[in-house]
Structures are given as structure tokens and as C-alpha cells.
Amino acid sequence: MTTLVVRRDAATEKFFDGTARGELLIRHCTACGAHAAPQFEACPACQEPTAAWVPAAGTATVISWTAIHGRPGDDAPAPQRVVALVELAEGPWLYAALNGLRAGERPWPGMSVNVAFEHPEGGEAIPVFLPAA
Ligand SMILES: [Zn+2]
User: Fold this and answer.
1) In Å, what is the CA distance from 113 to each residue of 50, 65, 105, 109, 122?
2) Are the beta carbons of 83 and 66 closer than 8 angstroms?
3) Rounded to the nearest whole angstrom, what is the distance from the C-alpha of residue 28 to the centroid of ligand 1?
4) 35 inside domain
5) 17 SS3 class
6) List of residues 6+ apart from 16 with CB closer than 8 A
7) 96 lies in a domain?
8) For residue 55, what is the enclosing H or E element?
9) What is the pLDDT of residues 13-57, one digit of tens each?
10) Span from the CA of 38 to the centroid of ligand 1 (angstroms)
């Protein structure tokens, strides 16, 4: 399975400092207390700039998901990657890979998942989700 290599830029620097430590950082509005997904630069609830980063608990539930099928190799079955839209315990929604499914297992809406981190060679650590035990 090929893994996406992600590199940081000025906008993602703090986020990837977090993933390198094993923390999923999200935005926290210091004005109204709402949480927002990492890409929000202004609070979606009150429009104030959301300067603060806080670590998410890392627990989430699946909202929706899709399977991305790769091409089969000579002897190998077609690789499959599942990408899920998850709702973090704090409220924000994120898209991320959903790994750790058993062969033939399908995710379902409301499925409990926990964050984990992949460390692709040459790239930033990226958050993925695994089924909760
Ligand atoms: Zn706010």
C-alpha cells in the first residue's frame, strides 16, 4: 500500500509539531469556547480568530466512509484504503484514513474509533483512526 507523504508549510507547522508528539491538535476558540477542525483560522461559531491549539482526546465516531480501491499487483489482491469522515469527541469533523479493519469488515455510522499516527518515511506524521477495542 502506498502511503501519502505529507510535508509541512507555515499553515500546518503547529499541527505537524503535534502529530510528531502523538497529539491531534484542534482549534479552540478563546472567545466562545467552541472547538473547530485544524484548518479553521476563524471560529465557525462566533467568527473570532481561533488562535489557540489544544490536543483532542483522540476519540471519535464514524459519520461516513468510502473505500478507495487500488490496482491489483501480479499476485496481490487489490489494495484498499478506507477514508472516513469522523466526529471528534470535541465536535469537529475530520477526514482521515480508517485502518485496522479486519478483512471484509465494513465501518458503520456511529462506530467508535481512536486516533493513531502513521509515520511515513520522508514526511510528517499523519493522523489515522483505528476501530476502538
Ligand atoms: Zn468562537
Assistant:
1) 26, 13, 14, 11, 27
2) yes
3) 8
4) yes
5) helix
6) 6, 8, 124, 125
7) yes
8) strand 52-55
9) 999 999 999 999 999 999 999 999 999 989 999 999 877 999 999
10) 14
Domain contains 68:
yes
**Ligand 1 center to 35 CA (angstroms):** 8
Q: What is the pTM of this model?
A: 0.88
CA distance 123 to 121: 6
What is the domain extent for residue 97? 13-131
Question: 64 pairs with which residues across the strands?
Answer: 85
Helix (H) or strand (E) holding 20: helix 13-20
Residue 3 belongs to a domain:
no
Q: Which of 97, 111, 11, 98 is CA-nearest to residue 60?
A: 111
Report how far apart, in Å, the C-alpha atoms of 92 and of each of 16, 64, 104, 110 are.
Answer: 18, 14, 29, 15
* Tens digits of residue pLDDT in 81-117: 899 999 999 999 999 999 999 888 899 999 999 999 9
Kindly compute the dihedral angle of the four CA atoms of residues 38, 58, 14, 66, in this order, to the nearest 10 degrees: -50
36 Cα–ligand 1 center, Å: 9
